[in-house]
Amino acid sequence: MSKSGDRKSIFITGAASGMGKATADLFAEKGWFVGATDVNEAGLQALESEIGADNCFISTLDVTDGDAFASVLEAFAKDTGGTLDLLFNNAGIGAGGFFDEMTFDEVMAVVNVNFVGVMRGIHLAYPLLKATPNSLCFTTSSSSATYGMPGIAVYSATKHAVKGLTEALSIEFARHGVRAADVLPGLIDTPILPEGTQDGAPTEGMFRLMPASSVADSVWDAYHTPEKLHWYVPEEIGDLDKAAGNTPELVREQIKSTGPLAAVIREMEEKAAAAQ
């Protein structure tokens, strides 16, 4: 008898805090068996204490370590009888700054976690998804996947890549009954935000500060809504996605002048000019 019994299961990367933890909490509350992984061991132990050891599998995991990822998934599969209903590729890191001022090691660190780590997780978990009826491969993209965002160019590029990969896999995986979808969050109250961001965050509009639970709700809804591909949090982010596709030049000018990062960009430019 597997540890999960006859419960559905979800495997989450980046589960120790923020959107991953909110999702783990919600699915545990709904009676699912939760696989929770993260580099933050203390956070995982706190999660286990909160939802109960019988209701979860926890393991530290660096998604850039392929051998470790394979081992963790193998151990998780023993607890579920070789099945997986929902893979939530959520682990991610952010690095801000002008692209030309980042070291290439900083660039590749973001790429390796946010995109290569996602691809590795999907590739390794696919046999489990394939073995499970109505399974879902779900990934955290970003509102920055609607238009390339200055100041977080590499992060934005990885999230564009995640979005494109999801679209392609939603067609490819259908031949085995596996679904694929993603979530494109705007400004979410999580530890990935720079310190102090929450204090001056908008309270309305598409880039208003949203709780991590709003993303968890989207993960839950995505599993129960087979036809939907992209989940926007809040929904207005979808309007930006449409506008960026139809009139990218106009969106570019709006971001430069009045977008949510305009003030940050101006400050960066002023500091760079003062340093010269």
From TrEMBL:
Family: Belongs to the short-chain dehydrogenases/reductases (SDR) family.
Protein name per the record: Probable short-chain type dehydrogenase/reductase
NCBIfam families the UniProt entry points to: PRK08267.1
Record-linked Gene3D superfamilies: NAD(P)-binding Rossmann-like Domain
Gene Ontology terms, MF aspect: oxidoreductase activity
Keywords: Oxidoreductase
UniProt keyword Transmembrane, yes or no: no
Domain called Ketoreductase: residue spans: 8-190
InterPro entries xrefs: KR_dom, NAD(P)-bd_dom_sf, Sc_DH/Rdtase_CS, SDR_fam
Species assigned in the record: Candidatus Phaeomarinibacter ectocarpi
SMART domains reported in the protein's UniProt record: PKS_KR
Keyword Oxidoreductase found: yes
Pfam families: adh_short
